[in-house]
Fold peptidyl-tRNA hydrolase.
Amino acid sequence: MADGAASTGDVAAQASMSNSAPQDFLVQYIVVRKDLWTSSGWPLGSVVAQACHASSAAMWMYKDEPDTQAYLAPDNIDQMRKVVLELKDEAALKKLGETLSAAGVGHKLWVEQPENYPTCLATRPYPKSQVAQYFKKFQLSKAPIG
């Protein structure tokens, strides 16, 4: 499906908070391209805006998923967990998107318009145990501030 959309029947869409392990928590992964600030000279604010776009789009695309509803529930709003990771470049970002799509992991690949320039990717909320395996090889984003 386009933009990493997964159908309700996909493996990734089958979990809910009630089925997750006691220490498991809902998390949204956001992955940004490191070359945006290292090679292309994007300011931090522009990179953060891309991550926000991808996160918001993923939430909207998967708003009917039980995990997304639980993540955004009024009682949980102050316990949101996001993990922001970095990867090398556009090719690595597209490869991750393909891997997630093949595994049925719901996500949004954010493509900046009108440039048609892929900048980052965000998953829908998942119990960490269900999706962490896809992100273990990436490191936490360490974009410089200032």
About this structure: Residues 44-61 form the longest helix (18 residues). Residues 4-18 have pLDDT under 50 and may be disordered.
